[in-house]
């Protein structure tokens, strides 16, 4: 199932999604949350994000009220997502959907390949020589952030694109906000949300997805097709299929803190 445009999606979704983009009553909903730029403000490096003290507990309370139908859908590795919200653990789709931990605890993990090692080592050397570059090793994939060194952006995109093209379809390039990465091909946030919706406690619920970046568009398409609601955080810098929007991550945090109280 697909929805081609945001206008089509709005026609199929609830009518007040623009006046009240984030619903106050989540009865019957399943919640899919991106992390960076959505729950948390973006930082120069993934390790520098700030998690409000109240947030892990709020997510846990909300997950219980939804009978566990709350999932983090992120580009981060699963273990890194867990670290952010310790001691609580939620269903998680990591590496943009390549790895999934279902609510039951069942795991689907992308294969780890030594094919990445030369690129990983090259990027590590490059980051060591240029402090503005930040390497994020995700084991099954590798990302490099250039927010503090934007002059490297075009070259890094070209380098990782060439690497992915030489992988015979095993890897693909993923662009984000001042970050480029190589990740396992064939999975995305949309395929992850589809997989989660096929199993309890998400099955049969109306999906609500909140995200801020290009990678979130894939889950927006799926959520729209299921008659749910796709909420974009921030003004998009490219076409989006989101059916509603909020201005910034702070709006999401304020909503989360309020409904989880």
From TrEMBL:
<keyword id="KW-0479">Metal-binding</keyword>
<comment type="similarity">
    <text>Belongs to the trehalose phosphatase family.</text>
</comment>
<comment type="pathway">
    <text>Glycan biosynthesis; trehalose biosynthesis.</text>
</comment>
<dbReference type="InterPro" id="IPR003337">
    <property type="entry name" value="Trehalose_PPase"/>
</dbReference>
<dbReference type="GO" id="GO:0046872">
    <property type="term" value="F:metal ion binding"/>
</dbReference>
<keyword id="KW-0378">Hydrolase</keyword>
<dbReference type="InterPro" id="IPR044651">
    <property type="entry name" value="OTSB-like"/>
</dbReference>
<dbReference type="Pfam" id="PF02358">
    <property type="entry name" value="Trehalose_PPase"/>
</dbReference>
<dbReference type="InterPro" id="IPR006379">
    <property type="entry name" value="HAD-SF_hydro_IIB"/>
</dbReference>
<protein>
    <recommendedName>
        <fullName>Trehalose 6-phosphate phosphatase</fullName>
        <ecNumber>3.1.3.12</ecNumber>
    </recommendedName>
</protein>
<dbReference type="GO" id="GO:0004805">
    <property type="term" value="F:trehalose-phosphatase activity"/>
</dbReference>
<dbReference type="InterPro" id="IPR023214">
    <property type="entry name" value="HAD_sf"/>
</dbReference>
<comment type="function">
    <text>Removes the phosphate from trehalose 6-phosphate to produce free trehalose.</text>
</comment>
<dbReference type="InterPro" id="IPR036412">
    <property type="entry name" value="HAD-like_sf"/>
</dbReference>
<keyword id="KW-0460">Magnesium</keyword>
<dbReference type="GO" id="GO:0005992">
    <property type="term" value="P:trehalose biosynthetic process"/>
</dbReference>
